[in-house]
Amino acid sequence: MAPKKAxxxxxxxxxxxxxxxxxxxxxxxxxxxxSAKRVALAEEKETDAAxxxxxxxxxACIFHTEDTTLNxxxxxxxxxxxxxxxxxxxxxxxxxxxxVGLTGGRYMFEVMITENRxxxxxxxxxxxxxxxxxxxxxxxxxxxxSLLLNGVENFFFDxxxxxxxxxxxxxxxxxxxxxxPNSNTISLFCDGxxxxxxxxxxxxxxxxxxxxxxxxxxxxxxxxxxxxxLRPLPFKCLMLQEAAASNVTVKKAAAxxxxxxxxxxxxxxxxxxxxxxxxxxxxxxxxxxVELSDRALLEWAEKSGCKNxxxxxxxxxxxxxxxxxxxxxxxxxxxxxxxxxxxxxxxxPRNLVVMEVKQNLTxxxxxxxxxxxxxxxxxxxxxxxVGDPPAEWKSWVQEGLLKEKRAKAEAQIARKxxxxxxxxxxxxAKRKREEDKKKAEKERAxxxxxxxxxxxxxxxxKEEEAGDEEKPDEEMADKxxxxKEGDDPEEEPEADIVxxxxxxxxxxxxxxxxxxxxxxxxxxxxxxxxxxxxKEEGFDDITYAWQKEAKCKEYLTAWISEKKLTQxxxxxxx
Length: 574
Known about the structure:
Layout: E1 2-5, H1 36-42, E2 72-75, E3 80-83, E4 94-97, E5 100-102, E6 105-116, E7 135-141, E8 154-158, E9 169-176, E10 185-190, E11 193-194, E12 199-200, E13 211-217, E14 219-224, E15 248-250, E16 262-269, H2 275-285, E17 289-293, H3 294-303, H4 330-333, H5 336-344, E18 351-354, H6 357-360, H7 363-372, E19 378-385, H8 391-451, H9 457-486, H10 503-507, H11 520-526, E20 541-544, H12 549-566
Parallel strand pairs: 16-18, 16-19, 17-18, 19-20
Antiparallel strand pairs: 1-17, 2-3, 3-14, 4-13, 5-15, 6-9, 6-14, 7-8, 7-13, 9-10, 10-11, 10-12
């Protein structure tokens, strides 16, 4: 199982996350001549900060548990950040976002690598782990951003050049002043010296509260929000902790439950009947929950730079519930990470969603979850997502179908336009070849006539005059032919794309999927054992998302009976 932070990464199309990884700086050798860029950097436009007028920020900027990935281990009251590094976690990025967002002014925070951790790299199949092993990204992010800085709703610098070294102090300065040469920019300094020109903030981040954020792997960090800098800049700049109260927004920590118990949610839904879609909608509305599942771990590993040879969800033997792990890294492929997560998740004060389609549908599977998360520490809630979904859900499904049809129609029109353009180019090339051929034939005929012997000079002059008189007519004919050929009767003015749902589409309750939730073999061997949860199993609460308990039980009984008529029998004993 793995964590998936409930989030919406805005500003990028699905399946194609935007990447804004800035190469930081290339340190020059002592004997190297200063470049034009180095000269430009010397002309600093920032000036000393004026004293803050009015109230200052009172709350300390910290890292709330819910604003860190599951592998983050804070120490020294949050001033140091470490991360899990065994059992495959050495391949995964860790991310943390501060609790104070800047809305104005000019402030900075600092990060220093206090230790590089050289952990064992256990490989299988000869694959290499993500590079570099020791890695750091620093920047600012909106509240909607992923905890792993990726350039979507966040802006970051990394050490992909010669890298951030252990002991270096990296400072990130955010200038949100209303006026000035560097307004709405972000800059990087290393050991007190500027190493980048001010970078403009993306338009999608302007006007929003921007929180300090770090993403790292196999390093120990010291994070300094102030009040005093570790390495002063060439000009006086206030630290984030010294910000004016009017220039910040403070995010409060998630409320602690009255009984001290966080919630463990166990969704129970039938395969290919909206289970994962329901979960995605739930996470989008309940950002304080973290998903524990194999699909979340797969996504986490891929975001960390691990290459999955099994192609994840798209692999022919894969499914959404248990996607293939073929990274060529033994500790990922043999599910060691899941085992570590199963050990540490119950120790963390978080709201969790345990997403396992098959496991959550069986009594024995649910028993494992209840054993893993004791009632003394967690409120165990089973949510049944079975039956006929509400009208709002069906409307969402139909809107998705319309979008798919529109996308297909637009793609078809684009292909048709491309084919017409290709055909037009071919016709123009053919016309050009024919013109060149006619021209060559005329030249050969003229040369042959000129060289003819015994022709009368007077006759030749008359023929030439007659030829000259015919030329305009020939040119006009050729031109008319070209215009005729140039007409494109197939090219029609663009019309609005109109798509409609068929009667079958209107009856559809769940989205069509390219990959099933369970593999055919697992499904056929287990569906007869599917049951709904009961209080006797030990759940603190059981809720029903779509229909009442009696209706859900009727639906499941009818569903199993229908599958028995169509499914092949696995492991039949003769």
